[in-house]
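Researcher: Good morning. I'm working through a list of sequences from a screen, and I'd like to move beyond sequence-only analysis. For each chain I'm collecting a predicted structure so we can compare shapes side by side. This is the next one on the list. No need for commentary yet; just the structure.
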Amino acid sequence: MKKLKVGLLALLLTAGIGGAVVQKIQAAPKAGAQEYSWNNGEFTGTEAEARTHYSCPTGSNVTCATGTADGVPDLVIKKP
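Model: Good morning. Structure tokens for this chain:
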């Protein structure tokens, strides 16, 4: 009976630690999701987040926002 309790405790502990690791991995920024400072620091986020924030659909023609980040070229998103 004691071995069962110890084994169950070890299983629960492992599951808890595993769950915490998975949550950290999911919360980490995704590869390729570069964060930019948009419109001189007015907003900070990825291109997708900026499109939502500024209501700029993909495939538009008028400049909606300009994003800057260290070490990468500026990114301009446009709207109709």
